[in-house]
Write a structure and sequence with these properties.
The protein has 332 residues and is mainly α. The protein has 12 helices and 5 strands. It has a 3-stranded parallel sheet with strand order 1-2-3. Strands 4-5 form a two-stranded parallel ribbon. Bound molecules: adenosine-5'-tetraphosphate.
Length: 332
């Protein structure tokens, strides 16, 4: 049976990009396609400046939102990364497999370290090693597939390289996984800065739609989206990125095709109105279910506790095998 793993960082509130690029697909497709594990990757949220109380709140919120989005604990395993020690145990061994040069090449490291430096913050060592921990998250479960948005493709490529290198040096230990991406909305762009990805930790939130935004806030953000001043509407991600982003979002929400949708509009005003309506409708059930689940913290905690137990049992044999293969003396 295909094993599927993916995760979300509680670095900020879940965005429309996270939802359309990853989470919706996990709930609607991936959890039913194989043996699926989904994780709130809280250790990754420690790689940038953080506030402990906020991290705690965002971790609970992320887990609750994953359930609200439709992850079903009877069908998949949902847990929190820091509850399963095996991720960190394996990460160290993979740090001994990766090279300094290859992790420094990661685009996300370059972007986030530059951002931290510009803000006068120090760059945490864990930001550099983050993709290695992510490789451990994936390899520890022998995942075949990793459903992610476009921005995580490079990290999954690194994971593949590390798995192959380890297997070649120390004997077959890891499944070599592959990234899977959605057909549309693999990279939802910031509505105010269509050259940048819509991100949880963007400095300005005017162009970022959060899953829990109230409908009138969603509408305002979409109606104010930056487009170009050219005539008509066409799907041209390179030349007219703002309009193309709206078409991608509308297509992802309505199940249409962005190029075909472009032909239906003569002005951005009408496109924005329809996109705003579509986004509000897609997010509505998630927001409503989140409100119900947030009132039942005991249920969410129970799901996470059970999920961590199952995940630990799956992860431990792989880490033990990797430790043996690399030459560490078994504890006996
Ligand atoms: N804008 C996006 N469009 C499509 N998919 C996206 N994802 C993130 N942003 C977009 C996908 O969502 C999943 C969870 O993301 P993550 O928690 O690993 O965070 P990230 O990829 O580093 O991006 P964020 O959400 O903007 O967080 P920060 O600001 O902390 O970097 C992943 O599958 C990701 O591809």
């Amino acid at each position: 049976m295909t094993r599927i793993f993916s995760g979300i960082q509680p670095t900020g509130h879940m965005t429309l990009g996270n939802y359309l690029g990853a989470v919706r697909r996990w709930a609607q497709v991936d959890q039913h396609r194989g043996e699926a594990l989904f994780c709130v990757v809280d250790l990754h949220a420690l790689t940038v400046e953080h506030d402990p109380a906020r991290l705690l709140r965002l971790s609970r919120q992320a887990a609750t939102l994953l359930l609200a989005a439709g992850l079903d604990p009877a069908v998949c395993t949902l847990f929190v990364q820091s509850h399963v020690d095996e991720h960190a145990r394996l990460s160290y061994v993979l740090e001994c497999t990766a090279s300094d040069g290859e992790v420094r090449r990661m685009i996300q490291y370059k972007e986030k370290s530059a951002k931290a430096q510009a803000a006068g913050e120090s760059v945490r060592l864990s930001l550099l090693t983050y993709p290695v921990l992510m490789a451990a998250d994936i390899l520890v479960y022998g995942a075949d597939e990793v459903p992610v948005g476009d921005d995580q493709t490079q990290h999954v490529e690194l994971t593949r390289d590390l798995a192959m290198r380890f297997n070649q040096r120390y004997g077959h230990t890891f499944v070599v996984p592959r990234a899977t991406k959605p057909q549309v909305a693999a990279r939802v762009m910031d509505l105010q800065e269509p050259a940048s990805k819509m991100g949880k930790t963007s400095a300005s939130t005017g162009g970022v739609v959060f899953v829990l935004d109230e409908p009138d806030v969603v509408r305002k953000k979409v109606m104010r989206a930056v487009t170009d001043s050219g005539a008509g509407v066409e799907y041209d991600p390179e030349g007219r990125p703002g309009g193309a982003n709206l078409l991608d979002v509308l297509a992802a929400c309505t199940g249409g095709n962005p190029e075909e949708l472009a032909g239906r509009y003569e002005s951005y005003g009408a496109l924005k109105r329809d996109t705003a309506d579509a986004v509000v409708e897609v997010l509505r059930p998630v927001r409503e279910r989140h409100a119900e689940l947030a009132a039942d913290a005991g249920y969410v905690e129970g799901v996470l506790r059970k999920g961590a137990e199952l995940a630990r049992a799956m992860a431990r044999p792989t880490v033990d095998a990797a430790y043996r293969a690399i030459g560490l003396l078994p504890a006996g």
